[in-house]
# Entry
Amino acid sequence: MAEDHKDRLPHLLLHETASTERYTRPGTGGGSKLKTPPRTRAQHAESLIQQFEAAQGQEADIVQEQKAFGMDVGNGLYLTFESEPGFELKFQSLEYERSGIELCSVKEFEDREVATVFVPEGKLEYFLRKIIRYRDEETTPKKPDQTPKPKEQPLIESISAIKLAALEQLFTDDPALFPAENQAIWWEVWLRSSDEIDYEAFLREHAERLNMRVGQESISFLDRTVILVYGTSAQMTRSIRLLGAIAEVRLAKDTADFYTGMDRQEQQDWINHALERISLPSDDAPAVCLLDTGLNEQHPLLKPVAAPADMHSYDAANWGTDDRHGHGTPMGGLAIYGDLTAPLSSSSPIELTHRLESVKIMPKPGNHQDKLLYGAITRESIIRVEVEHPERDRSFCMAVTTTDDRDRGRPSSWSATIDALASGSEDDVQRLVILSAGNTDPAERHRFPDSNLTDEVHDPGQAWNALTVGGYTEKVLLDTTQYPGWHSIALAGDLAPSSCTSMDWQKTWPIKPDIVMEAGNMAISPIDGLADYIDDALQLLTTGHQYALGKQLIAFGDTSAASALASRMAARVQAQYPDFWP
# Structure
């Protein structure tokens, strides 16, 4: 293609340079010990005992209510342990698997660490014994110059409060997002695992009794099952008390309805000229599999590499495989050709090295009813394509993200599913999954680059094992005759105005995005100083989904475009080096 250069050389291949070592967790500050607030030993112990006994006094009623509801096994209650403001909680010591005591969640709230623990029926004495040992017993010094210390000191002195957990303590999203008591919403519910009872089946069976509705999909991890539940916070509170099965709750995710209305004048003669110069990929060529809004594969530029048999849908009967949103088809053009301005304006041969596959993972516009568990949909979609063509090498590209950045780097059910799929931890099949980092709020892009630093990578872009793609731009020239006073936001080589980052994430979480590709630019209005997609010259050129209406070439950009370009690069490398991972 036109972008190929005579001085482009093969990759340098380095053999046997890696060694495998066991994973060790990074240190958190040079190995410094846990700092606890100053305590008066007897007074602190007595305070915790009183709090604990207040919670313990309600155990019998809670367990009786659970058994009356039909829970004959797996009974118990939730306790919340809080640290003092500004201090950490030794939450690792709150779990005791032998007794079935399970640490469900840990979060920060008002400068405190808050841990929620499930305690099986009859096991509350485990914590009471620890408090009493702290009050009454001391360690034996190992050296003469050492002084005795209270037993269990790090754990007990890190605790400031013990109480029965409420729904708010199991809610691990931003507390400001917690809904009103009678507001019915979709919740993402993380269920604990148990050898005694199938909590998912029990909840599905009894959801109607709780006046709640359960979504069809679920995701199973090693120690958690994730489902969607529709109900109010009051109903969820009752379900937590009755079921004893819920490890944490979050708000169900909204996916972005991403449209770009940047149409280009029809260029049918350019398309015909390009088609005359195309050489098709081999039969065993790799593929880019788009997990998106579907693909209109009959577009003249896509038809040579997108077979109807390779068009799939999570719900073909209701959704179809075609692209009604206008997102998947532009992604396909970029995944095959890159920015079309180069090959269309050139007379050089166009050598295609890979094919397109598509799985539609979003409903048709206007067909959104219940929330969808996108981790489950993503897993099913990937496996479906692999079953169809197990012999084909492929990489996966998904630019569908949530509309918010509230996870702040924390794993979600969606990102955890992608991590498992990419690593092959479940089926020993490693996959290259390419994700977009998500887009900044268009209304805030005039604050570039500050808006990029505070608008964080969107779910599932925090997945550790996926390749998350952000955007930069070289597109800075716009028609100042047509748009006097306007100027592009980013300079050449800058971060793209649309690209989210992980600048505000804690060091615990990955640094994202992993790479950047061209994502286009925007311009600032001389009137109100706000950002706008004013000139198509600041965007990339690609295939339009409404090609039958004459809109065969359209402008497209942002981190979706960047992720499509990354998938193209991956496929070209895969075609050149078919024995490379994955």
Notes: The chain has three domains: 41-139+149-165, 177-252, 268-576. The chain has a mean pLDDT of 88. The first strand starts at residue 76 and ends at 82. The chain has 15 helices and 23 strands.
